[in-house]
Amino acid sequence: MVSRSDKTLRQVLQALGDPLVEVLTAPRGLDDVVRDVVILDPEDDPDVRRGDVVLVIGLRGRAAIPTVRAAARRGALAVAVKGRDDALQQTATDIGVALLAVRPDARWEQVESLARASILAGVDADDETVSDLFSLAQTIAALTGGLVSIEDSASRVLAYSRSSDEVDELRRLSILGRQGPEQYLALLREWGVYQRLRESEQVERIEERPELGIRRRIAVGIHAGDQSLGAIWVQEGATPLTTQAERALLGAARVTALHLVRSRNNPAAPLRLRESLLEGLLDGHTTAAAVAANIGTDPKRPAGVVAFALTDDADRSTLELRRAELTNLIAVHTASYRRAALVTTLGARIYALLPDLHGTDGMLTLTKEIVAAARKHAGIAVRAAVGLAPDLSRTASARREADRVLDAELDAPVASINDVRAEVMVAELLALLAEHPEIRDPRLDHLTAEDTKGILVPSVLAYLEALGDVRAAADRLHIHPNTLRYRVRKAAETAGIDLDDPKQRLITQLQLSLR
């Protein structure tokens, strides 16, 4: 049992943020202490205790009234639902329970993760690790397509993923009892599963055993050097596991090991140490030799830096949730690719270091897989850029290359500077023009101001981008070539410029592109 800090409902709601959760009614106020956060499926018996914040899934509006009443009878402090309803709000007021409205597009596991992290914040490292492990379990579940349990070396369940999928007897009893049932553990030992998990990093495949109520699953041991720390189990649900499940599980085990070592030792190590090492390397404040010595890599070999940027248009609290989820996803993928991979967040971007590269093809493939997985499994829109360093000491330069690609805000989901150098340089020139009006041609600003119908500037740009090919430019704009000739001539007269001058054409194309 973990100890918890005395966080009030008000403090938990502040952590969630107003855009994510709104208080509809709080007849007892917001200053009672929250005991736990519970997800409640209406089809299950309400496993709710006094002081719980209950997240009601599967029901909206008035349909949630019976479940809200049941949770309140068991002492729930607050109940969160999706959808507004006057009758539901009045019911909550009458029975004395706070009613919270969750934004319709929010994912319940994200709300739970953020609320739980708020409750655990400020207590000991074990509690922080518990919160991190539950979040990590959810990421592993998304990547593998299965139901995840993280266990310690004594087969005690430390964390598990949430799912409405088909749960077999082994998983059900393991979670309910906080430890796998002995008769099942004995069979796994007899089959040699635990021994292999303790001795190697190889992913184990355990076939379905219908007579025992056990579905197909895969598992991998969690190791710190030669020491076995536990295992991660993934049960197959109603659909097969993903094709990348085993590789994702290997990376997840390496990331989980860091969390478990942290809980046993100094809370600041090794995760925070690894983040600090990468931050210093990217900023040029930490030497390559120091980083290489800590992560066990060759500083003279090439290394790659991948920068990730969220492209979602969302409020701050939602972006923070998605960034945390994306960081977990990146850590799992990169750890499966390179054990010594480092991941950290700087500002709004997430960076991954991939040391000991043997070429860039694998790094580009990995990055594309991460971007695709973020969109498919987590619903997160993200762009990524890669930079290559000839050796670890050039990491800061590789980061700058990746940042330049992201700063250009191109359409490509994944790119390197060599793929889009011209586009990046044009974007940088346009940014320079935007910041320094003194180096712009005022006649072109006049043209832009006079083009009230918005037809002259696009026509000139299409003409210049087509290198003066009137027919090609007209086809692009879906107008007659003579119409284009008239508009270009009219624009030149309005601005007082000579488009036969190659230098003027260059300046005109750049400056009008600002629009």
Automatic annotation (TrEMBL):
One of its GO terms (molecular function) is DNA binding. Keywords: DNA-binding. Pfam families: HTH_30. InterPro entries: CdaR-like_regulators, PucR_C-HTH_dom, PucR_C-HTH_sf. Residues 456-512 form the PucR C-terminal helix-turn-helix domain. Signal peptide: none annotated. This is DNA-binding PucR family transcriptional regulator. It comes from Kibdelosporangium banguiense.
